[in-house]
Amino acid sequence: MARFLKKTRIFIIIFWLLAAVVAVFALPNVSQLVQNKGQITVPRSANVSEGRRLQKKLNPGEAVSSDIIAVYNSGANKKLTKRQISEIRSAVRKVSQNRAKYHITAITSLLDGKSVRQQLTSKDQTTMLVQISVKSNQNQISQRSAKIQRALKADHLRLNMTGSSLVNHDFASATQDGVKKTEVIAIVFILIILVLVFKTPIIPVISLLTVGISFLTSFSLVTNLVQSYNFPFSNFTQVFMVVVLFGIGTDYNILFYTRFKRELGLNPGQNANEIAVKTLFSAGKTILFSGSSVLIGFSTLALAKFSLYQATSAVAISVLILLLVLITLTPALMSLFGHGLYWPSKNFDGEGGSKIWHGLTSAAVKHSVVTALATIVIALPLAMMFSNRLNFNDLWEVPNQYESKRGINLIQKHFPAGFSSPMTLIISGDKQLDNNQQLYALDMLQNRLKDDKDVSTVMGVTRPLGDRINQLYVNNQLKTLNSGISQAGSGVSTINNGLKNASDQLGRQQTNTNGVQRLIDGTGQLSSGANQLQTALNTLQSRLASGAAGADQLNGALATLSDSTDQLKGGVDQILGRLNQLDPNSIPTSAQIRGQIQSMQSSLAASLTPDKIGDIVTQTIQQGVASGQISPADVPVLSKTLPTVLQAILSQITAQLNSSMETILDSQSNNLAQLDSLKRQLNDLKSNLTRVDNGLGAMQSGIAQMRTGAGQLSSGMQQGASGAGEIAARTSDLTNGLAQIQSGQQQMKTALDGLASRSRELKNGLDRASNGLNQVGQGLNQGQSYVKGLVGNSSSEWLNVPDSVLHSKTFKRSLDQYMSPNRKTTQLTVILKLNPFSHPAIGVANHIKQVATRSLNQSGLDHAKIGITGTSMQNFDLQQISTSDFLRTAIIMLIGITLVMILITHSTLYAVTIVASLAGTYFVSLGIGEKISQILLGRNMLSWNVPFFSFIMLIALGVDYAIFVMMAFNEERGTTVERLVSASNRLGKVVMSAVVILGGTFAAMIPSGILTLIQVPIVVITGLLILAFVTIPMFIPAVITISDWMLRRKFASMKRFERESK
């Protein structure tokens, strides 16, 4: 073996040097790789992953875009001036007009109207935002953002570009800068420590050379696997490869070169080749066992589901390359340089034991029970100091000098904190969402989300700017309905008045038949007077003819004639007076009656239009929804069916009423015709009686002349007799005419009596219709009162988009903005009052998800998929995934390491004791580390990935030191206590040196400025100190001593029992 090593050592050295050179040339662009593939991703089952998949349905076919926020600030806590606003407007217009040049897919700014401008301007008027979506991946975002920033620059204004994408980019850049600082500091620190330990410059250089070759080779291999095969990778992969390789690599080199120096001192006559081989088989065995445990620990991380944890498995590749380098290159270098490795030292007697560890272990095994109990009692309170509350605020990770951090700080100072990173809730299903039922469900969801005290604004299709559009809500529409009901009530009142007028006229017609009877009686009196007049004229004619009367008798006869004429004229005047009272024009014609009925039918039809019926149906459904008797899901069906059914019923009622009226009109058609005839006869009678009255007046004048001319009567007696005969003949005609008139009057009365009977039936029908309309009016009044009660009631605060609005161009813009082209996917933008990066925002994100799920399950969207994107929801997913995956990975890792320890110690009890001690050290380190972070950094929580990184480092690296001691323990001879003390004394300096080097390597991460890379070293260094001074030299020996004593006692009892049995 020694000969083989001598022959091949040059080739081994050249091989690894060439491997390092090739690795350097094959190394891809690490910064670009970190930007493109180093971002944390969550599993497909996570809310954010589902949200991103659903988000693609909103704008299918569009390239991946990133959101940027341009933050304009006056810079002096003064309001933006008109000139500054004008400069912003000019710059934004220039960029907006050249969207293709700047790869912009969407831009929202003050150019989009007054409402948008108010929303994008802070309340103190000092800051204004411009929201921009840019087609880019993570690697392009910085360059394209810078290009847009140059175009948006305005004089005398501060402009910061920010957004989640830029924050992530700056975080990756800050991490890369931190890694570079860590590498330099770690190399310098390791050189100093190794020089102090070995008191030579040769070993430090050779040690760094072997570790450096391991790092370059493994890092090049990992990055090429990432580039070509998407091997898991993160921002932290490189930094942990550095600290682990330089840490344990140096530890292993210390063990190698310490053992080599010891062997050189023990075997002064042997050559370097033989001693190198001997060292390889002794120390190399320990290193292989130790390295295998680290390798297994990091390899188990490949079984994780979380990308960040998977990415840490790359360290396993580094450890594997390191072990290969150590068991090949290190022996070759030992063989080549030999004693020269320790120049200028000439002392090869080896180092003395560790007095500190010797003392600690001796005390522990001597007072094992006290040591174990005291350690547990002290450790428990320290471990319980850990709050188990983790910080997910990525802004804490980004130093303040980065522009994206400054922009976020400005937004959170002048706007609701959530404005810097809103959440987007995406809902997608197989139903069209652009209808009233689904819009109502979406609006109710917006209401419930807005009710959360930590939510500032919810924007969606029904509230594009976050505020309600009052015209789209039932409460506002009820006011219009109330006005319509009032108008309907007025219409019903008008119809009712018309029916009452028609009924009253028919009632007056009944009264007029009584007047006709008086007219017949007066005509009878007139006929009797005419008969008396005819008798008197006949007597006069007889007397004149016989010449038997004298002048006195003639005067007497004329006096009697005059009285009779006066009586006859009085009768005629009475008839004319009563005819004047019975005005024929006051009797309605059949056409007038029909016209009134038809007017009533038209008014009734006008009051029962489909629109007014629809209004009544709407308020009835609202009442049912408010009282819980009608489900919102049934509203669309009822809205479609009820108006049709109600229209059919009212149409049937109207048809029956019209039919009844037509039947009455048909049955009274003859009587109505007679009524028209009677009206004509009354007019003729009035005309004839007027002529009779005029004749009687002339007769009176003639009789007066006869009386005054009585003296002349004797001379003209013959003429008088002739005139009296003519008057008597005319009087007979008058008597016959009056008889005919009285007969006609009797017929008219009979006809009017029949008409009165029919009119009573018509009047009763009209009265019933009037009563029905009174009930309709009362119902309308009740409906109006109910509607007035609903106005302003919370139960009427729900959405109802009229069809005219739903299909308008204005509403289409909102649909296009918040819905997919097929209208089956929509989004809501939720802006929190809280900092979206903060821990409380995680709980709000979870609450929003629960509210959305519960709300949609209660609507017609219960089968829709829900996805949420945004920083707060991503942090919620990270919390759930990291916690569950950490526990699973930790269990696998502990089981693997336990198996390795069982193989080394040949004892399950020892293996479990060591692994449990390491786990206890981890929890104590977390408690102390959180307290140190709170005191020194002002952060009362550890970053969310600190527990994981600290665990794998402390367990995987801490088991290294335990293996060092247990391997030495196996080599020692004597009792368990003696072997423990001797192993601790021999390995104490090696382990303490390794702890110092590893602690210093982790401390090199602190100047990076990244919070995670500061807190992880705090916890790990705390754990290393506990391991170096408590766990390994005291607690583990004490527990092993107790367990050994118990086993020996049990064994002695069994022996005694066997002897007694014999």
From TrEMBL:
Sections of the chain in a coiled coil: 665-695
Membrane topology reported for the UniProt record: Multi-pass membrane protein
Signal peptide: none
A single GO molecular function term of this UniProt record: transmembrane transporter activity
Pfam family, one: MMPL
Localisation: Cell membrane
Major subcellular site: membrane
InterPro entries xrefs: Acrflvin-R, MMPL_dom, Mycobact_MmpL, SSD, xxxLxxG_rpt
Statement: the UniProt record of this protein carries the keyword Transmembrane: yes
Transmembrane parts of this sequence: 182-198, 238-257, 287-308, 314-343, 364-386, 886-904, 909-928, 948-969, 990-1014, 1020-1047
UniProt KW DNA-binding keyword: no
Key words, A-Z: Cell membrane, Coiled coil, Membrane, Transmembrane, Transmembrane helix
Cellular component aspect of the GO annotation: plasma membrane
Gene3D superfamilies associated with the record: Methyl-accepting chemotaxis protein, Multidrug efflux transporter AcrB transmembrane domain
The SSD domain, residue ranges: 203-336
Entry-linked PANTHER family: MEMBRANE PROTEIN MJ1562-RELATED, MEMBRANE PROTEIN YDGH-RELATED
Family membership: Belongs to the resistance-nodulation-cell division (RND) (TC 2.A.6) family. MmpL subfamily.
Name of the protein in question: Membrane protein
Lineage: Bacteria, Bacillati, Bacillota, Bacilli, Lactobacillales
